[in-house]
Amino acid sequence: MGRGKIEIKRIENSTNRQVTYSKRRNGIFKKAQELTVLCDAKVSLIMFSSTGKFHEFISPNITTKKVYDLYQMALGIDLWNTHYERMQENMRKLKETNNRLRREIRNRMGEDLNGLSYQQLSGLEQNMASAVDRVRERKYHVLKTQTQTYTKKVRNLEQINGNLLLDYETKYEDPQYGLVDNEGVYESAMALANGASNLYAFRLHHSHHPNLHHGGGGGGGGGYGPHGLRLA
């Protein structure tokens, strides 16, 4: 049973395409070698794969340059001169393009305008006006973006400041962080803040205590203060 006919078209799968290329390349090289041996033909076969790999087959006792020389002699042309002329033509076109672009740049800078006609000057004016509009639009966009960024930063700073102020006011109203008026109360508040279990208590005793002297507070009242206060 014979093989089915294969449609000749590009293989989309890259792996299958490379495998097919390798197989058929070897077959072509084999045919070229058979032509060289059987027919005494001078064969030069150059191939490039889709991946850029280079493969070449040259008949024995010959070089690729000799094959090119034989080809030129058979057709009566000079491949090297033709290629050089194409390169020269391409370079001339590139020079023209470069000179034109340089001239347009000078015109946009207001220079070298003497050789321009009225229509060319009008077109140049319109192009420059359009360019100015685009530059101005971009400038306003950049300014708007910078302003929005600055406004966002200011709002963030205001929010942080408000949070800090609220936290400060909350702590100020808390008795644990409140201000005191005299030293005794301040010491008691500090002791409370430090978690102390024993606080100083001030007790006022009646004036009829046997060891209390009015207006005195002399040496006989050990433990009493000058105003009849005893430290418990």
UniProtKB/TrEMBL annotation:
<dbReference type="InterPro" id="IPR036879">
    <property type="entry name" value="TF_MADSbox_sf"/>
</dbReference>
<feature type="domain" description="K-box">
    <location>
        <begin position="84"/>
        <end position="174"/>
    </location>
</feature>
<keyword id="KW-0804">Transcription</keyword>
<feature type="domain" description="MADS-box">
    <location>
        <begin position="1"/>
        <end position="61"/>
    </location>
</feature>
<keyword id="KW-0539">Nucleus</keyword>
<dbReference type="GO" id="GO:0045944">
    <property type="term" value="P:positive regulation of transcription by RNA polymerase II"/>
</dbReference>
<dbReference type="GO" id="GO:0005634">
    <property type="term" value="C:nucleus"/>
</dbReference>
<dbReference type="GO" id="GO:0046983">
    <property type="term" value="F:protein dimerization activity"/>
</dbReference>
<keyword id="KW-0287">Flowering</keyword>
<dbReference type="GO" id="GO:0000977">
    <property type="term" value="F:RNA polymerase II transcription regulatory region sequence-specific DNA binding"/>
</dbReference>
<dbReference type="InterPro" id="IPR002100">
    <property type="entry name" value="TF_MADSbox"/>
</dbReference>
<dbReference type="Pfam" id="PF00319">
    <property type="entry name" value="SRF-TF"/>
</dbReference>
<keyword id="KW-0805">Transcription regulation</keyword>
<protein>
    <submittedName>
        <fullName>Flowering-related B-class MADS-box protein</fullName>
    </submittedName>
</protein>
<dbReference type="GO" id="GO:0003700">
    <property type="term" value="F:DNA-binding transcription factor activity"/>
</dbReference>
<dbReference type="GO" id="GO:0048437">
    <property type="term" value="P:floral organ development"/>
</dbReference>
<dbReference type="InterPro" id="IPR050142">
    <property type="entry name" value="MADS-box/MEF2_TF"/>
</dbReference>
<dbReference type="Pfam" id="PF01486">
    <property type="entry name" value="K-box"/>
</dbReference>
<feature type="coiled-coil region">
    <location>
        <begin position="77"/>
        <end position="111"/>
    </location>
</feature>
<dbReference type="InterPro" id="IPR002487">
    <property type="entry name" value="TF_Kbox"/>
</dbReference>
<dbReference type="InterPro" id="IPR033896">
    <property type="entry name" value="MEF2-like_N"/>
</dbReference>
<keyword id="KW-0175">Coiled coil</keyword>
<keyword id="KW-0238">DNA-binding</keyword>
